[in-house]
Amino acid sequence: MPKEFTQEEMEEIQVAFQNVDVDGNGYVTANEIGGLFQELGKPMPGYKIRELLESLDRDKDSRISLEEFTEMFRDVKSNTMASAFKSALKQKEGIVSIGGTSEISSAGTTHTIAEEERHAFANYINVSLKDDPDCSNLPIDPNNDSLFKAVSNGIILCKLINHSVPDTIDERTINIKKLTAFTIQENLNLALNSASAIGCQVVNIGASDLKEGKPHLVLGLLWQIIRIGLFANIELSRNEALAALLEEGETLEDLMRLSPEELLLRWMNFHLKKDGIIVKNFSSDVKDSVAYFHLLEAIAPDGSKEDEPKIEIDMNGCYLGDNTKRAEAMLQEADKLDCRQFVTPGDVVSGNAKLNMAFVATLFNKYPALTKPENQDFNLESETREERTFRNWMNSLGVNPHVNHLYGDIQSALVIFQLYEKVNVEVNWDRVNRGPFKQMIGGNMKKVENCNYAVELGKTKAKFSLVGIGGEDLYNGVQNLTLSVLWQLMRRYTVNVLSDLGHGEVAGDDLIVSWVNETLEKAGKTSSIKSFKDPEISNSQPILDLIDAIQPSSVKFDLVHTKDELTDEEKLSNAKYAISMARKIGAKVYALPEDIVEVNPKMVMTIFACLMGRGLKKV
């Protein structure tokens, strides 16, 4: 019989999984497995990593899910590769000791969690939100479990989301005073649905988990939120100076397709080149702090700018014989740049990849020390709202690879196949080329084959309208055609919520409009909508009335602009409030306030469909 785990052991397995899952996307990949062994000072050859991945990857999708990770711990006796992986996990400092080795105290069961992450995240929150009058329970003591209690009422989570992606949450909707179990639940709903809207994966996290302060889930969510904020400007369309990192033979498009992690490594090596240092990871290659010393020296202001006085980096600490003492000396120099964040000397020496990556991102954000090439011809368009919405939606579902650049990261169609499965369209994975495509002969043609199959599935299985769309259009990232496919996937995903509640595939636009109007009328509301193009939607009144009909007395109408002729600014204010209120009552809305003001029928439809789903769950 397979071994059954206690709740205590399951929580420890989940903590271990999240510590290996460096990018927080819900899956462990070959790169992350390689990074684990690098951190332990036992680098594993590429072919060995691939063998290990294959031995653990039960559904053969080139990644390890939490379920597969858990199965590994049931019985590894006959699997030497899995045994090696399990052994490596136990050796890694700061993760867990799985298998009944947790200490039992008089206060109950305690788990060995990633204490360094708890410490780092508590300090980050203390610094980031120190001036916010609503965060009365700051500073958080980083040396105990105060962090988990501090986030349990949802206020800090909401504030942190806005710190990472400003204006995501209308702060008028956050319950601050005289909190009750119900208003705390609302705050946590608001935080979770808003986190999902900015691309965090929250599928396995509930409000009760956060209220109880479950360490592995709280830390996992905090890391995703913090990571999004740290990486916001590490993208070429937002920071054209990154073009200085172009290597010979590369195009701007090549650079755009690099992940933030890859760009950070590229940035480090750009500044370390003159010293002959090459960094390949954020773990073993930075343990001795030597690369960090030279990086600090390279990016520190030299006094050439009027608003930046010169900061001298003392390199003497680089020559200390002890790694821990050298790391402390390095962090003292980083403090001169106001960048002593995320890592302690122990985190540097142990090679904690997640926290070291966050430290480097902090350095980049404060002192990029890059100059846009003068002769570089830029013709980069910023990400549109629609593209950002689709990208965040996909990432919130935990697709792999994580979508950083919409068109580049879905070029292989692997993400699209995962989305098909999310909308209950069966994928024959035997027909799918899994990659890694760089190592395949004819890798690009294999991607095109995948795209052809993706279009075929859309036409034959999903019954999408894909007239004039071919596989090469997806491969080449033809904007309007690619977005058409993604929209139909997102629409199906949204409407499936209604299907699950008993409405089947008849839950089309007319049904949703009819339900909205009937619900408004029963609640005694005077507003109504003719369609998702109705100009009356632009003032948000029908949406706010519907929210109040679903959850009576939830909307504070004294905060809503209600005069006949509203300015665009007043409409936007109403829309921000409406979006946050929808999320607060439990609707997972991905649309943006501007979609309401402009009456974007696609996104407006998703708002009403999500509210309909929320309303039907009450019945």
List the main descriptive attributes of the protein structure presented here.
1% strand; 619 residues; mainly alpha; 52% helix; two-stranded antiparallel sheet; globular
Low-confidence stretches: 93-113
Tell me, rounded to a whole number, the average pLDDT: 85
| Proportion of helical residues | 40-55%
What share of the residues does DSSP label as strand, in percent? under 5%
Order of helices and strands: HHHHHEEHHHHHHHHHHHHHHHHHHHHHHH
| Strand order in the sheet with the most strands | 1-2
Question: Main β-sheet: number of strands, strand sense, barrel status?
Answer: 2 strands, antiparallel
In short:
This protein is an all-alpha fold and 619 residues long. Helix content is 52%, strand content 1%.
Structure description:
The protein is 52% helix and 1% strand. With 619 residues, the protein is mainly alpha-helical. It has a two-stranded antiparallel ribbon with strand order 1-2. α25 packs parallel to α28 (601-618). The relative contact order is 0.07. Mean pLDDT is 85; it is low at 93-113.
Sequence-ordered SSE layout with sheet pairings:
Blueprint: H1 7-20, H2 30-39, H3 46-56, H4 66-72, H5 80-91, E1 104-105, E2 108-109, H6 115-128, H7 146-150, H8 155-164, H9 181-197, H10 207-211, H11 215-230, H12 252-256, H13 260-272, H14 290-299, H15 323-336, H16 345-350, H17 353-366, H18 385-396, H19 406-409, H20 414-422, H21 443-460, H22 471-475, H23 479-503, H24 509-522, H25 541-550, H26 568-584, H27 593-597, H28 601-618
Helix pairs in contact: 1-11, 8-9, 8-11, 9-26, 13-17, 14-15, 18-23, 20-21, 23-28, 24-25, 24-28, 25-26, 25-28
